[in-house]
Amino acid sequence: MFLNFYVNGKQVGINVAPDRRLIDILREDLELTGTKEGCGEGECGSCTVLIDGKAVHACLTVAIQLEGSHVLTIEGLEHKGELSKIQKVFIEENAIQCGFCTPGMIMSAKALLMNNPHPSEQDIRNALAGNICRCSGYSQILKAVKKLAGEHMK
Amino acid sequence: MNAYKPLNLDELKSILLTAGDNISFIAGGTDWVINNRFRKKSLDCLIYLGQIAEMKIIEKRKGELFIGAACTMTDLANHSLLNKEHLAIAEAASSMGSKQIRNHATIGGNIANASPASDLSAPLMCLNASVYILQNSRIIKIPIDKFFVGADKTLLNQKEVVIGFALPEDSTALYSHYYKLGFRKEVSVARFGVAIAIKVNNSIVADARVALSAIGPVPVRLPEIENLLKHKSFSRQTAKEAGIILRDYIKNTSGREYKAWASIGVMEDALKMFLPAMNQNGEYL
Q1: Under CATH, what is the fold of the domain B1-50?
Q2: What are φ and ψ of residue B206, in 5° steps?
Q3: Which residue of B50, B74, B101 is in closest CB contact with A42?
């Protein structure tokens, strides 16, 4: 099938199998390797991207579902070479250890803050519950998102 | 593989008239993508149900509440009418998976895949829901308790599609909750899914319905617990007796010891959910 959709604001048109996963389209076809594949079955959240403003798993989304949709990946957060506020705060708060979960963690936080700029700690915990950090750096991640809560994001 | 993305039911009907038998349907895809890995024979045709307008609606019509099969768990969890009148449905949807899963997974998929641990099956059973199915270009309606025929098995044939669900008008008079016990608080598969709906008149439980998922191959209503709760004041004292009935049911069916052991605590916690919304006389606030 021919798929027309948007990735990080740019229109993309490609020939793909209807059951090709979004994670494979991003990483292999479009060479956007910021999105990571961990478990491949929706348990770990490392492949989290935003589709039409909602956090979803790129490993559980396939081409037939994507027509006309707007996909935002970790690469879409920086602007003219400058990291977004949320990325900067993750660095400031040392909310990164090995870094594998970080793109998914940031995209889940991004989805939360877009829809709810002033989340409670429980809101943050709920939004990030589907993102696993195997380094167990949850305290720093929570602190980073709490710091962002209430601030207007770039 | 041919890909179809019908925008309404008429388009879906036309596609099904000409499609062969080697087809598959996808909606949210959270189960489908995983199952697709184990497919032995490649598909001739894949049909995406997530854009069918009639399947994305939640509305009252002809005295019943219609919930389209392509509504996501997030749609259900946030829906004002469900949160007001059918809390068990909204609670079950918000307890299912993670945020990412809830944003894609649909109620139609949750029921049509017929996982024994389905979160939505118990609330729908408890509220006497019906299932609308597209069958040979006609829409038929069947009670949900007839829909499940085994673990991961339903009445659906190859080219049949769940269009939506109907909650009968009398279910709005019931106050309902969904209690889930899993291995952890979030992102958890139900080990017990308990849906309870009650109606209280003059401090007496006039009607009670209890349905459970994850304790056997298909969700079940437990009339013995329903009868126990009826015609008396709603109290936590009956919770232990309800738990004993559940324990004995599990011992006599699946025989899973850990579930039998947990039964009393599960029923106590499930019934405890009703207390904050009641005054001292047991009436709803």
Answers
A1: 3.30.43
A2: -85, -35
A3: B101
Say which CATH class B173-277 falls into. alpha beta
Domain boundaries A2-75, corresponding CATH code: 3.10.20.30
B5 CB neighbours in chain A (<8 A) are 64, 67
State whether residue B139 sits within 8 Å of chain A by CB: no
pLDDT digits (tens, 9 = 90+) for B76-134: 999 999 999 999 999 999 999 999 999 999 999 999 999 999 999 999 999 999 999 99
C-alpha A25/C-alpha A7 separation (Å) is 11
- As for the ipTM of the complex, it is 0.95
Q: Is B3 within 8 Å of chain A by CB?
A: yes
Chain centroid, CA A8 distance in Å: 11
- Regarding the domain delimited by A85-148, which CATH topology (the fold level of the hierarchy) does it fall under? DNA polymerase; domain 1 (1.10.150)
Region of B52 (left: φ > 0; alpha: ψ -120 to 50; beta: rest) is beta
Binning pLDDT at 50, 70 and 90, where does residue B60 land?
very high
Tell me the average pLDDT across B7-14: 98
- For the entire predicted model, the pTM comes to 0.95
Which residues in chain A have their CB less than 8 angstroms from residue B36's CB? Answer: 19, 62
| Chain B contact present for A127, CB below 8 A | yes
